[in-house]
């Protein structure tokens, strides 16, 4: 039985909320690239409402906020990732790389000896 590589899901908690995780990191990166929450959501195949809720949760968990919305006409509208948002994204991606290195540790090898390739069917 060949198991795939270690896959950890890093989440940063803020009280009971998930302040940051892989999906929010991807969304923040898309906002930086697209300059708009709506265009970032579309690029990710996500609804604007879902993207807005994720941005709102991130902004409520970090000080200062990670995303700033720009109102007005012309080129000065949309959204931008703040300096804090960029710093949080860089730090999170570094943590992901550090976590990937856990696959080389003996604890990972011991855990893998007990892990199934896929879950058993539900007994319900």
UniProtKB/TrEMBL annotation:
<dbReference type="InterPro" id="IPR036388">
    <property type="entry name" value="WH-like_DNA-bd_sf"/>
</dbReference>
<dbReference type="InterPro" id="IPR051815">
    <property type="entry name" value="Molybdate_resp_trans_reg"/>
</dbReference>
<dbReference type="InterPro" id="IPR036390">
    <property type="entry name" value="WH_DNA-bd_sf"/>
</dbReference>
<protein>
    <submittedName>
        <fullName>Molybdate transport system regulatory protein</fullName>
    </submittedName>
</protein>
